[in-house]
Amino acid sequence: MLKSFRRFLAVQVGAGLTLAAVGVMSAPAADTDVLATVNGLEITEGDLNIAAGEYGAQFGNLQGDQRRAALLSALIEIRLLSSEAEKAKLDQGEAFERRLAFLRQQALHTAFIDKVVNEAVTDEQVRASYDKQVADAPAVNEIRARHILVKTKEEAEAIIKQLGEGGDFEVIAKEKSTDGAAANGGDLGYFSAGQMVPEFETAAFALTPGDYSKEPVETQFGFHVIKVEDKRVQQPPAFDAVKDRVRSVLIRDKYVEEVTALRDSAEIEVKEPALKEIIDGIEKQRAGAAEEKTEEPAAAQ
């Protein structure tokens, strides 16, 4: 089940999708509160919130007032340089107007995502999606095993004989096993089908808890003596551990839904054939992914 859930949550949030997340500031304040002035021009809390959405990731290691101060310093520099650019008439000309129009469209794009996409995904939907994934995911058995890895069959047979005479598996693993798990008494933790090499996996799953292999198990790594400690049904990840990723997937799906509807109703003509072919391919992939999502549970193998 855990493997299924990880596969479901591994879906990318979507090509070209920018989700502007305004950082939480350490001291709540009104957007109109003035934090600084630069040559008489005010910088407000609202300006700082916008900067957090645009540049917050650059100050990810800073918290609280340290982060706020870094953002405010960046805004001061922006005001200083933009004023100098205006004096030099860099805000004039067709190229600047095109860039300004693009930035306006980009801001509107972000506003649409915040209002129509992000706000549409509720906490209740996130929980319901998680519950559905857990319910739809097939039960997966897993085992906890230890092993002792040696280079030759003769060494493995000698260890099996030693175990038959009452030897302690963990102690022998620490003394004689040649892989990294030796320090932990050969403990490999829990694993499910498909996570180990086939020869090892087949032998391990055939054992009952408390039993060890009576014949050496050969793999590409050498010869193993395996002991199974426990068998259980794999548990899903806790909701709190994955809820943010579940939300991201739902936001991705909502974004694709909105964009697809707008594309279908719009008149779009790509003039350059090579670009058109690529874009058409992307749209086919998007449509195929949406169809697959509808036909199969997202957490299915």
UniProtKB/TrEMBL annotation:
Family annotation (InterPro entries): PPIase_dom_sf (IPR046357), PPIase_PpiC (IPR000297), PrsA_foldase (IPR050245)
Catalysis: reaction(s): [protein]-peptidylproline (omega=180) = [protein]-peptidylproline (omega=0)
Enzyme Commission number, as recorded: 5.2.1.8
Listed GO MF terms: peptidyl-prolyl cis-trans isomerase activity
Pfam families documented for this protein: Rotamase_3
Keywords noted in UniProt: Isomerase, Rotamase, Signal
Domain of life, per lineage: Bacteria
Signal peptide limits: 1-29
Keyword Transmembrane helix: no
Domain PpiC: 140-230
PANTHER family: PEPTIDYL-PROLYL CIS-TRANS ISOMERASE HP_0175-RELATED, PEPTIDYLPROLYL ISOMERASE
Family listed: Belongs to the PpiC/parvulin rotamase family.
This protein's name: Parvulin-like PPIase
